[in-house]
Design a protein that fits this description.
The structure is a single chain. The chain is mainly beta. The protein has one domain. The protein contains 1 helix and 5 strands. A 5-stranded mixed β-sheet has the order 2-1-3-4-5. The mean pLDDT is 95.
């Protein structure tokens, strides 16, 4: 697994599971991220190359968080709930149990 720079932003995708937000936050904080670095993902704003995405996985009943690093951000027309994130390329780098 790649080394994670916990000083970078991490965008959290809950896939509609707001009931797991606190559990997900606690798991990411245990991993070394600070509360201030965890950002709720919105379809209207994407991260930068080098930032991270943290997704509850696998919907609809996730049991872990998939951590991915953003490798490329292309300009795209927003599409549905995915929004601008459809232009983001990323690599899987780690997982954290919920």
């Amino acid at each position: 697994m790649a080394e994670i720079d916990t000083q970078k932003d991490v965008y959290l995708f809950l896939h509609g599971r707001m009931d797991l937000k606190e559990k997900a936050m606690n798991a990411l904080i245990t991993k070394g991220f600070t509360n201030e670095k965890v950002i709720m993902a919105l379809p209207t704003k994407v991260g930068n190359v080098g930032d991270y995405m943290a997704m509850l996985w696998m919907p609809p009943n996730p049991d872990h968080i998939k951590i991915q690093q953003i490798t490329k951000v292309d300009e795209v027309e927003p599409e549905g709930m995915v929004g601008l994130w459809k232009g983001v390329s990323k690599d899987d780098i780690d997982t954290v149990q919920l």
